[in-house]
Write a structure and sequence with these properties.
The complex is a heterodimer. Chain A has three helices and no strands. By secondary structure, chain A is mainly α. In chain A, helix 1 runs antiparallel to helix 2. The longest helix of chain A is centred in the middle third of the chain and has 26 residues. Chain A is flat. By secondary structure, chain B is mainly α. In chain B, about 65% of the residues lie in helices and about 0% in strands. Chain B has four helices and no strands. In chain B, helix 1 packs antiparallel against helix 3 and helix 3 runs antiparallel to helix 4. The longest helix of chain B is centred in the N-terminal third of the chain and has 28 residues. Chain B is elongated. Chain B starts with 5 loop residues before the first helix and ends in a 32-residue tail after the last helix. The chains are: A mainly alpha, B mainly alpha.
């Protein structure tokens, strides 16, 4: 019964990834594109956790943690570059 | 305390997974469909955070209660991911809003002037002789 819910989540997360890629393509300004990239990484974390539930292993959760950290750091670095023109002053 | 049967845990995991999937979908739909950038900022920073929280709670309950015995662990990485994401999602949304306001400064003509002589946002320096109690 759980695998049906996992497949439902796979479908909805993959549709979300497609919508994020569309927003990354059409985004009117650069902040939209930063936001779409951030949401892409968060949705791929959900995808990794669903794959871990499906294959009954916790080994992918550490890579999900690394993805979360890199998403935050890259978003902050990009916004700081937009605001200041430099990342580390 | 009575033992909760495995069937009930399984249904809790299913409901959490459904909540997570639906909220992740709503977050990305809001990112695609809302009509300006400051409105679009709400959807990934709130709905997607709830969605990923639902999926992570489902994963914790699944690996701690539902799964068969040789795979049963407590996934501490999931707790760390929840902690980290719930801590950093508002911070990154705030940074994106600041970057947007820096790129597109707001029109202050429509707004009423504040009484203390300063502007509205953080773009202007405070006057040097400014004190909050002066009338």
């Amino acid at each position: 019964m759980i695998h049906i819910a996992v497949y439902f989540c796979y479908i909805s997360v993959c549709l979300s990834l497609l919508m994020n890629i569309w927003r990354l393509y059409i985004g009117p300004n650069v902040v939209d594109r930063v936001m779409a990239a951030d949401t892409l990484v968060i949705n791929s974390i959900v995808l990794l956790i669903l794959y871990g539930i499906q294959t009954k292993t916790t080994i992918y959760f550490e890579s999900a943690l690394l993805l979360a950290m890199f998403s935050f750091i890259s978003t902050v670095a990009y916004c700081r570059f937009l605001m200041r023109g430099d990342i580390i002053e | 305390m009575p033992e909760i049967p495995a069937n009930v845990w399984e249904w809790i995991v299913i409901i959490q997974l459904l909540i997570g999937g639906i909220f992740v979908f709503i977050g990305s739909l809001g990112l695609l469909r809302l009509n300006n950038t400051m409105a679009r900022m709400h959807a990934p920073s709130k709905a997607t955070t709830v969605g990923i929280g639902g999926v992570l709670v489902a994963s914790i309950i699944y690996f701690y209660q539902v799964v068969d015995e040789p795979y049963r662990v407590f996934p501490a990485q999931d707790l760390l991911i929840i902690f980290f994401l719930f801590l950093t999602a508002p911070v990154s949304a705030h940074f994106m809003a600041k970057a947007y306001l820096h790129k597109h400064p707001p029109q202050e003509d429509d707004l009423p002037q504040p009484s203390n002589g300063c502007g509205w946002a953080t773009f202007k320096q405070l006057p040097t002789n400014h004190s909050t109690h002066s009338r």
